[in-house]
From TrEMBL, chains A, B:
Keyword match Membrane: no
Domain called HTH tetR-type: residue spans: 14-74
Pfam name, any one: TetR_N
Keyword list, A-Z: DNA-binding
Gene3D superfamilies: Tetracycline Repressor, domain 2
Official protein name in the record: Tetr family transcriptional regulator
Ranges of the DNA-binding region feature: 37-56
Length: 199, 199
């Protein structure tokens, strides 16, 4: 008969863990790698230092968990978008917007910080590379499906790759300044290109 | 009659400074921000710690100098390419290759590290932003001139912007793994798109 007592405790523990992970993503995206210390994460999450260390004994453990969660979320976002694929005359614009949203969102900004830090920390690179590959595949599948719903346009595969590299370029440009206005114009021009190319 | 004595000393001093800056770019591009300490830079440059501190009293002074030099070099590279603009049937492929070379080269990899670090250090952002803007303008001027040598294709401006965002996306993808093989295919597909779009 321990279950009714244990369960709320497990829920609380899970909620604490989730708050710590969410604070980490926020801090990484807005303040960067150096500013994202376990102490600051715990403070922002409203969690004691001791409780934070119970969940994540080392900074590495915290970052490994957060990288996995961020990439799982972005990959799931691509999967969810694929399940509700836009149709009709604006479908190209819609799928490009979905791809751009993935690479200009907060999780990707946070991921970029870890990505940069991986240059000084090869173990981080080992964690990110397979997850980045998996995200890239899910995003590619989404964009191909959006550009070529009935499988009649073989050029859609290359155009999807260009779309994703472009989206990553947008994501990068957005880290230094708010690039949304400039990006909107370039994105619209790319949608126009795609529309012509897919005829 | 001090000049003959002073000059070689100034030359040596300038050479030491250049070696320190070159080591910093190498370290940033290959080992990342955290690993690029003044001590390691001095060691790699074969310069004493004291001499390094004479040139760059603080880590900030070193990074400010290196950022300015990197961006000046990349902007000069865009300017030099503009002066020797390719002509003929392969001119589109050539100018795209020049743009991609700027954003996948060592200085941009080093700049990306500073760029990420700027999230935790707003003063760094203040140094980079105007230089990034200046580089962006020089690169845009280069690509527009390559895509539209006689000023008859107004769409070249937007296509140049797409080219540069794409090139930055390539630059980013190349930091995590050697992306040159995959990139070659996507780049060729983009050149094909441009060729059709520019009729």
């Amino acid at each position: 008969m321990n279950a009714p007592l244990r369960e709320p405790q497990q829920d609380r523990s899970r909620a604490t863990r989730e708050r710590l992970l969410a604070s980490t993503v926020d801090l990484l995206a807005t303040r960067g790698w150096a500013a994202t210390t376990v102490a600051k994460v715990a403070e922002d999450a409203g969690v004691s230092r001791g409780a934070a260390q119970h969940h994540f004994p080392t900074r590495e453990a915290l970052f490994t968990a957060v990288i996995e969660q961020m990439y799982d979320n972005m990959t799931a976002e691509a999967g969810a978008a694929l399940a509700e694929l836009p149709t009709g005359p604006d479908s190209i614009a819609a799928v490009v917007a979905q791809a751009v949203a993935i690479y200009t969102g907060k999780p990707f900004k946070a991921a970029l910080q870890v990505w940069s830090a991986a240059a000084s920390d090869p173990a981080l690179g080992e964690v990110i590379r397979p997850l980045e590959l998996k995200l890239g595949r899910a995003a590619h599948k989404l964009v191909v499906a959006g550009l070529d719903p009935d499988g009649s346009r073989p050029q859609a595969h290359r155009l999807a790759q260009i779309t994703l590299d472009l989206a990553r370029g947008f994501g990068l440009a957005d880290t230094l300044t708010d690039d949304s206005r400039r990006r909107a114009g370039v994105q619209a021009a790319w949608v126009e290109q795609l529309t012509v190319a897919l005829g």
